[in-house]
């Protein structure tokens, strides 16, 4: 292991075992709360705790370490000699066992018996599995039991019981033999007598072994009480052994003898108060199983309650509990409390008296449902815990139908009536959080559970209670969203809530239900054309739990009727019948309508609110004016009228709480705004000849709309309009979207062999397909194979490419060419299903992320037409082929920038096509195959799996039966076509997913995308506005370009419901690639990535780039390898590879490393020449050193580097760049080539190496220290830069260019006036009272006199006539032609490791976090929460207090130095200190006599700071600063 910062050498013997240096293969992370330990010390501690000397443990430890050494060193030894040795040893041991058995059978004196027992224990400790036969074990059993009953000599008793313990290890069947000879009663008698403590401890060891195989015999012999009666006499380690015995016994419960368990309950309840985590978890497991045993006996549950179980369990599950339990145990305790509340009135009353609603609120609030920046990450088993919490919440309220359960329900109701303050407190605590859980997009089971609690709460609350609850939660808008769910159970609960509310508070909710759309939702349910199907069976739907969890905590429900039923153990009846009748929902909806609404409004129009009618009028007025403007585009008065209506709409939308989500969606305002922003180009019925004029008017409208939304000075707009409208649109999107979450609930994926298209093994199942030629098809042959296994996660385009050469009537050689190309691609790909290699990515994910997202037609003139969705006219759009243009193509200020961004995204199509395997030239490339399944043509851009999901989702509900999907045989017909049909490339973006009849989500997404662009370009827009003001002469102050513009946080554009849905989908076992998820996941992420939180994007990036689900990557016992939240990498499947580097030639070593490993999927670890350290710390430092080397002066890579490249090579230490605004490539003249210019050639090579380093660090989860500018990230993301972006990396040049541009605009404005007044346009056009000619500027790039902007710069000076050309040339040289080759070289290097296309889901700021971690390292509040103190230090130790004060006083540079000293990297991973893995640990360093003379040292691979106990804070700060500044640069033993 790497250690550094050591001032003097210490001998190993002087150090504790946990502080000695270790090599990389010796170190293992500790799974407990203690600090990391070596395997040797861990083995010894385990041995002491268990009091065993069995050879199995030590042998496995030795073999594990030895095996890793072999894999690390690459050596392999023959084991034939070992087999001979063990064979000989087994024969020898067998002979010795016979001899001991014979001697023990005879009556010898006690000294001889002691010697024989000692020899027997030694033989049993080290014998092999074949040395002791079952017959021999059976012969030893009665003798050992007899000796265990010996009276008088405790040594004989101790050795005989120890031999019994070892006998269970040596032969698995020994437990049965011992039970048959009454070993268990004998051991129990010894425990109850407890004459000798060591004998009692050995009895516990023996019972633990026997109880694993014979729990029932132990139970019947009274072993539970025997091990628990005197448990307080033993140490903690022995108490753990005793509880392990009880746990083993409780696993096999006997329903006929519950009393055998019940007598242990008082002791177990008392043990729950202990602080040892392992002990408490064992006790909790025992109690959970006991409660399951007596669940149907209220009397026994009441008896358990009297021992204080409820109070202690509630304390343990609380967030403030001193004992932190594992998730499995915590979930089990919640389930225990729910069962107690369901079966015991005493428990029910106790829970409400303990204010259990507050505890439930805390548990639900701690779950990551909002995906905010400060939310807690989700864990495995997350939904299982929420499910148990909802079970508990349901049991805390009586059932509505009390006739079924009689007196028990009445007792609960009587308690609530006698305690009127309980129910209001329950509602205030839980109602808001339950609404938030449902609105976050959780699955049907959790939604149903929340609604069940809400319904009970509403039912049992009085009118006055409900009136007060309205102050904390809005029922109406929430219920309107619930009605969008397809499941009839959920809709029935919503109807029951509406019915109850209308009975109790009709005057309050009548208008509210009309305003929020509940009335119209009910009307939809009773409409004759409403097809609400009944789906009683989920076919294997199960809760998401950790695979390691036991079956007791995995519950499978056949129907939602039984998900929260009291009889939870029975789940559902075997026939899976639903309790609800088919017409239950329809009848209740009709009853509610006829009772409450029919008298008020006989039709929909009478239920329209005033604000809805007003919005409809404004929408209609705006639409009419926009239609007229298409006919008369020159009328300025018409534009003023349009602006007036637009201003009224924005004012109405900006009013607080005046407009409901339903009113906004139904009013048509969103569609009208989309039409305005796009100038009707999003849906044009016919082509226009005046494209340039149309785009100009669109640009102007976008500018006007942007200024209106960004304005805060208008008295009519008191609040920030952009923020208000974004929030309203987010609410509207959440209410109308219905993207399905489709989960496969297989606990383990099964491997398969996919014949089509690559012929390779996959770690997921294949789909069985039978390809058949369509009837009447004569141009194609029949496919020779009958039924083939098809890779389900590759696009149909790939399958078509495989099948076409095999069925086309062409030269059979063509199929050979295609097959050969496929094999080459397959051989270049990585193992199994991950599409992480370049060839597979370009073939599969590239298509998914581009062609599938948007329908594209490229005319002959080279312009792209983007087909985006029409919300309500989907079918007509597809048939008429009307063009729909994206907001990117029509947005305002920087039109070229937006246009280029779209073009670059769409040009992925060409890149994908050029990367596909080449066909033979003789093949008819115009012929294409099209596939049909059950008469419906499949979308060629989807995967086969997605196509099947799409088809089933159209026919069924949003839970897809997973069992039949993988077992059935799909008959797919194929046909040929020599022309491009409209069916594959027409229709809206989201035609793959039926989001219901209301297609408003398309317009909402379009408008949200436009608003997000406005927010991102806000400074550009307002600067351009000020420029126009200057041009018109309304101001002469050029310093006002720096305008203060309010912005909307990027988190406001994150949709929590969609983020939660994508989270759920990515946890699906089939999410091994983006092709294994529904199409909407890829589509939304590609075109609307701002809808998802950064953490969700990181997980999606991981699946897309490396092809593995994060759920499969994080095991239950997570190992440390530099991963952090959002940066979990697939290290489990990547082999580790060490690489030796030289500190004196860092860049050369990095180049060699990338040359050998850039294309390989290996986890690289660095070892420095002539240093002993290896592992995480040296590797992180290597990447840090490489980053610093790339920032040296004289490389010619960055703008801040003005040192001549040739002179820098001769200098010894040219120094490092100071880049406060971030690194941006230095421009090099396009006239230079890599062949003619050696310095430029080196620059290109270094950018390629830099791209490789960045990608490899991202793949391996390493943090970089490269301060790239946002503008550079934009270039990497294929975004075009403008003159406004130059200010971000060169403020002085950017400001000067903007002032020049203002002069140009001023000249243009004067010229238009001069044509009317016959004046000279150049008069009065100056820059700060200076003529342009007087600046004496030539056509060379400022700061780079050798960079000529024109061919003959000497003869051309800048003047008022050519200054616009000068600006254009500078912008081009700075952001395009001068840096394009460097950026392309960087991306080509990046593509050798990972595809750079995967990064496009991130913004520039998010990409910085992804690559370089957090800018803000820590604050004072985080230090106590995320630092661990161990091995001699506690949180109150004086040295610890001093250290925390010193760390709080560090400035930024000292924080960076401290981090690099401790971890190897000067930055923290994404998430800060909380994500540091392993956790930062401070331990006491044992020094000599002169403590103040010693220095701190570290183990960087464990983030382990060994700190001496200095006498004062001043001494500690001095030594610490010296260590972190001077202790860098080497790894040695400490």
How would you describe what is shown here?
It is a single chain. With 1534 residues, this protein is mainly alpha-helical. The chain has 66 helices and 19 strands. The strands form six sheets. A five-stranded mixed sheet has the order 1-18-19-17-16. Strands 5-4-10-8-9 form a five-stranded mixed sheet. Residues 1-78, 369-381, 404-408, 532-557, 567-575, 812-925, 979-998 and 1109-1132 have low confidence and may be disordered. α3 packs across α5, α12 (236-251) packs parallel to α15 (277-293) and α31 (610-631) packs parallel to α34 (669-678). It starts with a strand and ends in an 8-residue tail after the last helix.
Largest sheet: 5 strands, mixed
State the shape.
globular
Indicate the radius of gyration in whole angstroms.
37 Å
Structural class: mainly alpha
Number of strands: 19
Notable characteristics:
1534 residues, mainly alpha, five-stranded mixed β-sheet, 19 strands, disordered N terminus
Topology at a glance:
Layout: E1 3-4, H1 39-50, H2 55-73, H3 80-105, H4 110-126, H5 134-148, H6 154-170, H7 174-180, H8 183-193, H9 197-213, H10 215-220, H11 223-228, H12 236-251, H13 259-262, H14 265-271, H15 277-293, H16 298-305, H17 309-317, H18 327-343, H19 345-353, H20 356-365, H21 382-395, H22 407-418, H23 422-439, H24 444-460, H25 463-469, H26 475-482, H27 488-504, H28 506-516, H29 518-525, H30 584-597, H31 610-631, H32 636-653, H33 661-667, H34 669-678, H35 691-710, H36 721-736, E2 752-754, E3 760-762, E4 767-773, E5 788-790, H37 796-807, H38 813-828, H39 838-843, H40 845-849, E6 855-857, E7 865-867, H41 874-880, H42 895-906, H43 908-915, E8 928-933, E9 936-937, H44 944-955, H45 962-967, E10 969-977, H46 982-985, H47 1000-1016, H48 1018-1031, H49 1056-1066, H50 1079-1087, H51 1094-1106, H52 1110-1113, E11 1136-1141, H53 1146-1157, E12 1163-1168, E13 1174-1175, H54 1176-1189, H55 1205-1210, H56 1238-1260, H57 1270-1276, H58 1283-1289, H59 1291-1317, E14 1340-1341, E15 1344-1348, H60 1363-1375, H61 1380-1391, H62 1404-1412, H63 1420-1426, E16 1427-1430, H64 1438-1449, ...
Parallel strand pairs: 4-10, 11-12, 16-17, 17-19
Antiparallel strand pairs: 1-18, 2-3, 4-5, 6-7, 8-9, 8-10, 12-13, 14-15, 18-19
Helix pairs in contact: 1-2, 3-4, 3-5, 4-6, 5-6, 6-9, 7-9, 8-9, 9-12, 12-15, 14-15, 15-18, 17-18, 18-19, 18-21, 20-23, 21-24, 23-24, 24-27, 27-28, 27-30, 29-30, 31-32, 31-33, 31-34, 32-35, 33-36, 34-47, 35-48, 36-47, 37-38, 48-59, 49-51, 56-61, 57-62, 58-59, 65-66
